[in-house]
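Hi support team,

I've been running sequence recovery on a batch of backbones for a student project. Most finish fine, but this one hangs at about 90% for roughly twenty minutes before it completes. I'm not sure whether the input is malformed or the queue is just slow. I've pasted the structure tokens below so you can try to reproduce it. Let me know if you need the job ID as well.

Thanks,
M.K.
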């Protein structure tokens, strides 16, 4: 009988703990959804229960996501802010903080690093991106300040399966307080809306007036067309360099796993003799 009483008490305690945990989780979820609703209202859009809010009131369609990177014990909470941009322009952006090995990899020609002209930023961040003239215009003071405000952060273009494209900012930790996320949302909205203008300005700087009617000079658009071909080549090079680096890393991982497997097999065979 005492054993039965102890079992009942243990079961009741477990049930109380589970109930309390469930109530706390439900309360936390409700609070998060309320905050997402506030962010969605600011964006002039909607939100869902999966941790996303979106809208187009800031110049470009913006999507905020409370995301998780990794899995299991290595999972991390990250905040993602996506700004939709036109997919018709050649564009590849991959920005992160420099690591110790970057300079060696860059020197070997296995990594691209665009210099944007801000010494502190250039020293701190890898800008593997193209085309260079457009990227320098896009990564202006506000974007650089936004990136520099976070220790773990990245910015990249994402080509979606449906043919659309976005520029995605990611920084570690979940941020769902509107007052704290308002500025990053606004900066990303401006960035998304600025892509078309950045290309137009770059092309306008290259177009030249050619002789003809002295009162009506003709604009020669050939330099802009030539520049477009160069930009496409730049983007192709960045993608090729990144693809090769990823393939090399995969090959090294496979080789290490094979080596571990061989060592394990040899050790097991030796113990069985």
């Amino acid at each position: 009988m005492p054993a039965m009483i102890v079992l009942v008490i243990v079961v009741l305690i477990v049930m109380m703990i589970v109930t309390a945990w469930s109530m706390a989780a439900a309360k936390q979820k409700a609070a998060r959804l309320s905050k997402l609703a506030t962010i969605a209202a600011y964006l002039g859009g909607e939100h869902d229960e999966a941790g996303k809010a979106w809208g187009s009131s800031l110049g470009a369609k913006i999507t905020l996501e409370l995301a998780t990177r990794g899995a299991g014990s290595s999972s991390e909470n990250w905040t993602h802010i996506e700004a939709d941009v036109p997919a018709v322009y050649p564009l590849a952006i991959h920005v992160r903080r420099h690591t110790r090995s970057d300079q060696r990899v860059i020197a070997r020609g296995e990594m691209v690093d665009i210099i944007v002209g801000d010494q502190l930023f250039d020293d701190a961040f890898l800008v593997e991106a193209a085309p260079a003239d457009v990227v320098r215009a896009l990564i202006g003071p506000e974007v650089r300040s936004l990136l520099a405000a976070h220790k773990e952060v990245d910015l990249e273009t994402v080509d979606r399966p449906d043919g659309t494209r976005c520029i995605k900012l990611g920084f570690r930790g979940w941020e769902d307080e509107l007052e704290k996320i308002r500025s990053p949302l606004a900066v990303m909205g401006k960035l998304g809306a600025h892509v078309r203008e950045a290309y137009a300005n770059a092309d306008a700087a290259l177009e030249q007036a050619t002789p003809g009617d002295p009162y009506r000079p003709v604009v020669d658009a050939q330099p802009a067309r030539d520049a477009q071909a160069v930009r496409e080549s730049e983007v192709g090079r960045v993608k090729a360099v990144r693809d090769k680096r990823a393939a090399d890393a995969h090959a090294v991982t496979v080789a290490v796993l094979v080596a571990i497997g061989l060592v394990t097999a040899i050790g097991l065979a030796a113990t069985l003799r």
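--
Follow-up from support: It reproduced on our side and the slowdown came from queue contention, not your input. Residues 222-272 form the longest helix (51 residues). No action needed from you.
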